[in-house]
Amino acid sequence: MQLLVLGLFLWAFLLPPGHWAGEIVGGWEARPHSRPYMAYLPGGCGGFLVSENFVLTAAHCEADSITVVLGAHNIQQQESSQQRIHVRRQIPHPQYDMETLNNDIMLLELSHNATLTREVELLRLPTGHCRVCPETLCNVAGWGMTSLTTTTNTLREVNLSVVADDLCKKEYHNYFPSTMLCVGDSDNSLYRKSTYRGDSGGPLVCDGVAEGIVSKGKRNSAKSHVVFTRISHFVPWI
Prior knowledge:
The protein is an all-beta fold. It contains one helix and 17 strands. The protein has two domains: 5-30 and 124-234, Trypsin-like serine proteases (Thrombin, subunit H, Beta Barrel), CATH 2.40.10; 38-110, Trypsin-like serine proteases (Thrombin, subunit H, Beta Barrel).
């Protein structure tokens, strides 16, 4: 059985030594346009559409200039469903810490509204401070690396589970339960499933709601837990 590695994107050189932010291990190709909220940010990260003119992503995905691609399945093809929209304004959280990746969340204001279609839709956000429970099965999707040296052009996905905060507290010196979410392999299988390197900014979707944003993990270790930004904490700011 071949180990599949799935990714969204990463600028590893921006992260603390020994850590990465996002790529998925042990996934599969998503059914085309089955995740219509997904946004591709060429050159580094992923994100997701939360209103006609805003994409949500990770703060460490900030760049000099961003053009968002919506409605994509194969990012190397000129699909008729794709919408390319320049980002007018990048709004990272004011308390974002680039060393610990605490408050790793950013809004991207688009230069004009996206046109909602079957391939381009909004993803719901959680309400208030309701916290997703451990053992909740969720989904992460994205584009990117299928190994340390190989990339894929099509959207891929994997199922992961929310786990107890204590597990990430043991693995990460800078883990803050109020703003971060601990996620791990859903079935503890031989071929591990995880985000690993390249999925930054993508959503953790649980029961149709965006509960987390891919933030950081342990470099070169698919067996460690992964840290997501806990979106419910930031709903008032959003």
